[in-house]
Amino acid sequence: MASEVFELEWPLPPREAAGDMRHIWNAAAERGWLNCAGDDALETVLAVVRAAGRAACPLPVMDGFAAGRPLEHRPDLVDDIADGTIRVVLTTAGVGPGGTVHGAEAAGAATHVLAVPPAGGDLTLHRITTAKPAEGLAVPAWSDLVAGPALASIEIGPEQADEAVVLLRLGLAARALAAAERTHELAIRHARKRRQFGKAIGSFGAVQQRTARCHIDAVAAGQLLGEVPSRRGRRDWRLTAELATAYIATVATRIQLGAHHTLAASGYFEESPAPWLFRRVHADVASLHGISRACGSVADVLVESGAALPDIAMGETADRFRARLTAFLDGLACPPRSRPGADDPAIVAAVAAEGLFAMTWPAGDGGRDATPAEQLVLHEEVIYRRLPIARVMGAVIAVGTPLAAHGSAEQKARFLPLVGQGRLKACVGYSEPEAGSDLGSLRTTAVRLGDRWIINGQKLWITDAHDAEFAWLAARTDPEASPPHAGITVFIVPMDSPGITVREYRALSGAVGCGVFYDNVQVPDTARVGAVDGGWEVIVEGLAGERAAMAGLAASLHRQLDDLLAVLRDPATGTAGPRGSATRAVLERLAADVQAARQLVAALGTAKGHEARMRAAMAEVMVSELCEDFGEAALRILGPDAALSGPVEQALRAAPGHVIGGGTNDIQRGTIARGLGLPW
């Protein structure tokens, strides 16, 4: 509805360069969009703000809404704002000497300016006497105002003032994001159709990589923003809003510029909507950076108040499970790890006794049909607490889940109890010298000979193969299959089978990866999992479990952030720097990125089909690359001590492996691009 109104009243490209703000303001008043009373209106207001952003229209809907609570004792003014009698813009800079206000948005149509003191004090309402446009980036132009004497003066406390500032910043961020999103959509359509060098430009790797990056940013930002209205009234809602604002302030211009690069000359001239959207994005982000909270930035709040990142809602079922799970995990006595990555038998046994490893399997297979969201919660809690059961959790994802879906009755009876009890030592035999991310190209063969299979080939970079009891092995059973992945079959192969040779390598992370050589290795047909040539379906089932692994990785980043904050808050070791310092700026970016990653991963709990595959790829790219960014930033913040043995340097060394594992991020971004309709 809102989008239709803006398309009619504020089309892009515009009929006139500046448009007429009064028409759209009146239309907004008629539809009740300017009603600034009530907490539950924030979702509607944000929807209107986003519709305005898509039209590159600076209608100050959020200004009126932000004024609602400070003016709650003046219902006459609230009503006048709602019906458009008073067309108000907000300033947090105050009204200067002679009534001057610099750089006001939409002032050509506004009638009044409301000066909000960020730290609390006297809020004042003034009639605008003159507005002089100041030409520049913004269209319509910002204006320098002269305001008359105060028509009303209302004392407000710090909480009310800060809320108004947070809302004003949030509105600018939401509008900038919406404008950038529309340009991104234009770029996707352009990449599908525009041909260069005889083919659509969307088939070029550089365009696919850039488009996927923009899409990840846009989706993560949209999810952060969408979380804010549901937090209204909660103690942490302002931090939730500011994390969304901080993230959008970084990515909105990145999305916009990336889209412009794809649009090229087609988006550079003003016959296209793109230049107008470019102006809107950058003007709003510039304005956003000019509005500060009295309590400081996200980093200031986290360091100085002891606040933590807000929790991520995942639905009632998952939240109830989290409550039961945390009560159980709180009672575990977790000893120090003997070495990084080592599982602790006592903890494994305790978790297994609760049925947590098998929880997602069908009840008939010893599980309880837990939801994907509950599985994400389990991985979040286990990894955040650094419980020493990571290898068992990996076996559940890679072997247990696909075996429960595709294994024979005999295989389930034999192996699922071992997996559920945390007693199956298995390695995953997928990667090869010529088949890493491209599993469809694997060359290890399995040739049928009666009721047995003869396996020949080599697997590479296989984690923990040196002490595994079984290999979950993918082999080619039809060399002529088209497409190639149609000719793959999965087997469970005992690692003590004659003909298997294991060569150990030490990874950067400290983990052991192995080359595994298969020389005429014989296994019975009962070792086959699923149908002959049907291995791809089995593999995809296991890869779907990567969603849970991403939840764990996001939780690991959350824990690293909390550890970093603990160091910075410690008077003896703190190096957070003063407000406004480069260190605080980096810390704010990390906090916003971690929260965005957590939000993106949480959405995997309800995603299905094509959306689930897209979201999983986006989460893997975002979370794994954030592992690298976080490690590098922490090293710079903490200095030489961070390079000594401990969680920071261990996480940094492991980070490249996350980008590589499960299909390199370059491949994942290509998958995302094709999911958006870009051609091969």
TrEMBL record:
Q: Which Pfam families match?
A: Acyl-CoA_dh_1, Acyl-CoA_dh_M, Acyl-CoA_dh_N
Q: DNA repair as a keyword?
A: no
Cite the Acyl-CoA dehydrogenase/oxidase N-terminal domain residue spans from the record: 344-422
Domain Acyl-CoA dehydrogenase/oxidase C-terminal per the UniProt entry, residue ranges: 160-282, 534-676
Needed co-factor(s): FAD
Give the keywords, sorted.
Answer: FAD, Flavoprotein, Oxidoreductase
> Residue limits of the Acyl-CoA oxidase/dehydrogenase middle domain?
427-513
* Domain of life, per lineage: Bacteria
What the entry lists under Gene3D superfamilies is as follows: Acyl-CoA dehydrogenase/oxidase, N-terminal domain, Butyryl-CoA Dehydrogenase, subunit A, domain 2, Butyryl-CoA Dehydrogenase, subunit A, domain 3
UniProt-listed PANTHER family: ACYL-COA DEHYDROGENASE, ACYL-COA DEHYDROGENASE FADE29
Family assignment from sequence similarity:
Belongs to the acyl-CoA dehydrogenase family.
Q: What is this protein called?
A: Acyl-CoA dehydrogenase family protein
- Give the organism, scientific name: Actinoallomurus acaciae
